Amino acid sequence: MHKTVPPERELYRLATEVAQHAHAPYSSFPVGCVIVDEANSVHTGCNVENASFGLTLCAERVAAGSAIAAGAKKFKTVIVASKDAVSPWGACRQGLAEFSDSETTIVQIDLQQNQQAIFRLSELLPNQFTFQSKTT
Question: Mind giving me the DSSP string for 90-130?
Fold first, then answer.
């Protein structure tokens, strides 16, 4: 975890670097993720595949777990690096939404073409599910 936010270029490099640590022997599809939280701390994660595919961990959820374990409460920016600049899939979008707001920035980086796409979470997950706890 970094204490201050490095320049954007450094965050992209970090997402690319962490993708190289992915355990992806089944899909050959490494993914790296960097999350910048509300305190400007930086957290990373990569996908960790398992022979029992349902136990596979996505890079976004690994990074989110790392952020929460470090005390983060809200995510400002999520950077995902992969082949073809894939978007976080539905379960990861919903998982990220738990600690984000509609303006959280999602950056998708293409590891092969060195290109990026930038979205707001609200564009990727319109009408997200939220749980409103009842108070008595």
Answer: HHHHHHHHTT--TT-EEEEEETTTTEEEEEEHHHHSTT---
Domain spans of the chain, in order of start: 8-124
Q: Are 79 and 109 in contact (CB under 8 A)?
A: yes
| Domain at 8-124, CATH from 3.40.140.10, 3.40.30.10, 3.40.50.150, 3.40.190.10 | 3.40.140.10
pLDDT tier at 131, thresholds 50, 70, 90: confident
49 is catalytic: no
Alpha carbons 114 and 57: distance in angstroms, whole number: 25
- Report, as an integer, the average pLDDT of 30-40: 97
Report pLDDT digits (tens) over 37-95.
Answer: 999 999 999 999 999 999 999 999 999 999 999 999 999 999 999 999 889 988 999 99
Catalytic residue among 38, 60, 98, 123: 60
d(CA 127, CA 110): 27
